């Protein structure tokens, strides 16, 4: 499932994150992937602003209804700021399956980019996600988030003008299997949209299917 969710961050949060980026030190993005031969960007790497960034973005994502419905989040890696200046890119790669976080290991099921720069302020820098021989390209408005499966090959195209500023994070879902996750999302959506139009006894049967699939498919603690 690929979903662009608008207005995850309110404009004040976007402004605060831009301010953090403008006043903090960034380092080579390979600090978190030392062996990568395709990563060519910068990451915020100062404890206090990084902690504030993670708090703002994680809280906004976990408080967003659409994100919650799509991702079934169980754990989220601390979101961090990444920056791409002209000439920078992040070549085609998959995201690692397991990541260390301050709260323990996390299996990355979904990856997420929160856009912070105005798309008109930079050229290039689209997030390009491969789908077999096809592709999807995303360059969202400030405050929007693209959520996509971590198993995809994806890249950030070279920035040729301006600056691409994003927050990135990785999510462990309660439903590991992407097909099951998408099926349950669809079922829940249809039930939410049409449930009140159904006879109550039929709606109860539909709810039993929703809840019992959730029982079967979610990770057990
Ligand atoms: O900058 C982005 O939008 C995504 C970066 C990325 O793919 C990653 O950090 O793994
Ligand atoms: Fe990635």
Please characterize this protein's 3D structure:
This protein is α+β, with helices and mostly antiparallel strands and 221 residues long. The protein has 5 helices and 17 strands. Strands 1, 2, 4, 5, 6, 10, 14 and 17 form an 8-stranded antiparallel β-sheet that branches. A 5-stranded antiparallel β-sheet has the order 3-7-15-12-13, with no helix packed on it. A two-stranded antiparallel ribbon has the order 8-9. Strand 12 and strand 13 form a beta hairpin. The longest helix has 18 residues, at 200-217. The radius of gyration is 18 Å and the shape is elongated. It is an enzyme of class 1 (oxidoreductase). Fe cation binds at residues 93, 95, 154.
How are the elements arranged and paired?
Blueprint: E1 3-5, H1 11-23, E2 26-28, E3 39-40, E4 42-44, H2 47-62, H3 65-71, E5 73-76, E6 80-84, E7 89-93, E8 98-101, E9 104-107, E10 110-115, E11 123-124, E12 127-131, E13 134-138, E14 145-149, E15 154-156, E16 159-161, E17 164-173, H4 178-194, H5 200-217
Antiparallel strand pairs: 1-14, 2-4, 3-7, 4-6, 5-17, 6-17, 7-15, 8-9, 10-14, 10-17, 11-16, 12-13, 12-15
Helix pairs in contact: 4-5
The structure holds 2-oxoglutaric acid and fe (ii) ion.
């Amino acid at each position: 499932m690929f979903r662009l969710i608008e207005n995850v961050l309110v404009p004040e949060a976007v402004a605060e994150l831009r301010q953090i980026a403008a006043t903090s030190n960034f380092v080579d993005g390979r600090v978190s992937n030392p062996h990568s031969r395709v990563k060519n960007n910068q990451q915020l790497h100062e404890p206090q602003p990084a902690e504030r960034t993670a708090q703002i973005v994680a809280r906004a994502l976990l408080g967003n209804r659409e994100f919650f419905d799509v991702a079934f989040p169980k754990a989220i890696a601390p979101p961090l700021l990444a920056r791409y200046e002209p000439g920078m890119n992040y070549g085609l790669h998959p995201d690692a399956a397991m990541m260390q976080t301050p709260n323990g290991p996390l299996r990355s099921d979904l990856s997420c980019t929160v856009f912070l720069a105005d798309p008109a302020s930079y050229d290039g820098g689209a997030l390009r996600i491969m789908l077999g021989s096809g592709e999807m390209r995303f360059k969202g408005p400030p405050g929007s988030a693209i959520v996509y499966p971590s198993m995809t090959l994806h890249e950030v195209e070279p920035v040729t003008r301006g600056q691409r500023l994003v927050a990135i994070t990785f999510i462990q879902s309660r439903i590991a299997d992407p097909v099951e996750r998408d099926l349950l999302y669809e079922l829940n959506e249809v039930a939410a949209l049409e449930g009140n139009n159904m006879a109550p006894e039929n709606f109860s049967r539909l709810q039993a299917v929703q809840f019992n699939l959730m029982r079967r498919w979610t990770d057990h603690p």
